[in-house]
Amino acid sequence: MITLSSYPSEWSWGFSVSRWQQLCRDIGAIDDIPFDRDERRAWYDVLRDLVPVGHGFKPTVRLYAEEFPWCSLDADSDDGIGTFQTLLSDWLPGR
């Protein structure tokens, strides 16, 4: 949550930064084994979020695992692909 507050507001993200900050507050996950696991995870998230945008690629899209039964989608069916595309367009800010 702290790291997200440092994200440049002028960049276009593939997720709502404020929504993910709220999820961080709501979930309150703490993972201290090893002692710096939270910091490592935050660092890897930053890399996933910043590197593509910083190099001119489309932004990373964050999907919250508990928001939808993702495994129920069939990637080989038009219905599954359509549902996924609809969900993305609904959740992506500014899209």
How many structural domains are formed by the residues? 2
Shape: globular
Helix proportion range: 40-55%
Unreliable parts: none
- How many beta-strand runs? 0
Q: What's the story with the biggest beta sheet?
A: none
Oligomer: single chain
Structural class: mainly alpha
Distance between the termini: 24 Å
- Percentage beta strand: under 5%
Please provide the ordered H/E string of secondary-structure elements: HHH
What count of helical segments does DSSP give? 3
The overall pLDDT average reads 87
Radius of gyration: 15 Å
Structural features, described:
There is one protein chain. By secondary structure, the chain is mainly α. Helix content is 45%, strand content 0%. The model has no long low-confidence stretch (mean pLDDT 87). It has 2 domains: 62 residues, no CATH class; 30 residues, no CATH class.
